[in-house]
TrEMBL record:
One Pfam assignment: HTH_Tnp_Tc3_2
Highest taxon in the source lineage: Eukaryota
Residue ranges of domain Transposase Tc1-like in the record: 21-78
Species name: Ignelater luminosus
Swiss-Prot/TrEMBL GO biological process terms: DNA integration; DNA transposition
Listed name of the protein: Transposase Tc1-like domain-containing protein
UniProt GO molecular function: DNA binding
Length: 91
């Protein structure tokens, strides 16, 4: 089934509302949610394509431990002291 502009706008609004509460919604879950709410049957690829068209891209959440405050401060301090001119100078 092809989504018309109105259904596409409703679908994007529905996804944007849902993503604020549940960020890791898969395209299959989004497709099922659209079927329940709008009563339209669309493919997973259509969902992905329409979301990509409005710059809602899939991404993985950051994994691993968070950066400690003292480490962030040390990185910032290094960046402020680092001489980029010397770094890019070719000998």
């Amino acid at each position: 089934m092809i989504l018309n502009a109105e259904d596409c706008a409703k679908a994007v609004a529905l996804v944007e509302d849902g993503r604020s509460q549940r960020r890791h919604l898969t395209s299959v879950e989004t497709k099922n949610q659209l079927h329940q709410v709008l009563g339209t049957e669309v493919s997973v690829w259509t969902v992905r394509r329409r979301l990509r068209d409005v710059d809602l891209k899939a991404c993985r959440p950051a994994s691993g431990p968070k950066l400690l405050r003292r480490r962030r401060v040390a990185r910032l301090q290094f960046d402020l002291e680092f001489d980029t001119v010397e770094y890019y100078t070719v000998y």
